[in-house]
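Class, study these two lines:
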Amino acid sequence: MTKRFGDFTAVDDVSLEIGSGEFFTLLGSSGCGKTTLLRIVAGFLRQSAGSVRFGERVIDHVPAHRRNTGMVFQNYAIFPHLSVTQNIAYGLRARGLARAEIERRVARMLEMTRLAAFAARKPRELSGGQQQRVVLARAVVIEPDVLLMDEPLSNLDAEMRIHLRGEIRALQRQIGVTTIYVTHDQEEALSLSDRIAVMRAGKVEQIGSPHAVFNEPETRFVAGFIGESNFLPARRLGADGGRVVFETVGGRRIAVPTSRVRGDGARFMLAFRPHHVRLAPDAALAGALADTVYSGTAVRHAIDLGDGVRLSALMLSLPGAPSLPIGSTLSFDVPPDAITAFPDSGP
């Protein structure tokens, strides 16, 4: 699927297949095309090329109000003059359902979203989290074929976002609705999704489970965008059995499994997570401790390897662990299966 706005291509030849009942997330920074793609699925925009299918049915010419999608927006869009019950029931009344059926469905949603005690309240009498639950209930009560969610938690504070993540995921599992979720928040995507599509400049960089996109990045962009990674410059020396040998700062050598080497060339970047760094006497790598930051549960060390290369190491904060003086030499290694090698051709 492609979407162009004049000379600008917002969605560039993207092809996705989302399973029934799956929680699928479009993840990327602002302007990557994720919301444009969601709006095409919803029917608010028409694609320039390609088609949208719900099952075997092509819905390209089906208007938005007939696609049977539930939509949860970043701004709540609650009717301020209606009660919680009336807001949730709005879509059912618009569809002309019988009164008894409306009451049954609304009562079920009030119970599932823990809003029964607030049924008669107006939106101004609710917290931000409660208002978002009303929007979610209104989208789900119509029993949509697909639930579409566009940055639904971005206007909430950090504590409420974490709380509502769990509620959204639990509700989605309970009702089994196919869900497409848009966010720029990596942690949100990892905690909610069955699969994630990481987008950049209108293209999909990688599709996979949260475990796969975090631990097995296919591109250097994904390795840097999802979570935090160290990037260690290295020169490829050659193969040794099932591994590729690289030479890095100070002539140190690191062997990386062939399956974790992406592409060819002589110059590479070796990517690995700070929490995979292991301090050990006489390990293969060594550097000077440049800084230490204590955050309660963890200690982050900045290690200078020379030649302008600085790495981050994240350690659990354990009782009785000795403090390390700035400038001391730290020896460390990284499990080979935790390293991914990318050609050094830029991000």
